[in-house]
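**Discrete fold encoding**
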Amino acid sequence: MKRLLGISGSLRRESFNTKLVHEAFRQYGACEANVADLNLPLYNQDVEDEGMPASVTALKEQVEAADALIIATPEYNKNPPGVLKNALDWLSRFRPMPTAGKPTVILSATAGGAGGQRAQSALYLMLVPFDVDVLANPEVFVGAAHTKFGEDGTMSDQATADFLAKKMALLRARLEG
């Protein structure tokens, strides 16, 4: 069974991006699915010099154990949020790079109509030094996210669910092919 690690760039309890990660797991099908905890200290060389925080080491181990990554980013001021950048900064401190060669899906959900297109573009650039294998197309932007999820947190918009299913089928084919 393949292991997927979801990384949501939002810490909010009712995060649309965390819901999107869970929906991606459902669309993928049978897998071992986990969501990373990005409640990490801010990256600081002094903290690293005193010893890698346990929460950072746990994230690294989750990334290493995963067969693929699913990163969902909100869009804060036309960019990915700081919590996501901070997690990447911490991961960059390990050698070998735990993300190297990992098939990676990038998704976004926002209240706005563009669905996080700018944040995804910025995230692609942020991921260049991490040597991930980004599955770029089809791109999944969930705009007006507050209208796309039901009370139970699952995708209520069938067209969006179908589009996400295509993306996850691509990931499944990459992992199983």
Q: What stands out?
A: The beta strands are 3-8, 32-35, 68-73, 103-109, 133-134, 140-142. Residues 158-176 form the longest helix (19 residues). The longest strand covers residues 103-109. The mean pLDDT is 96.
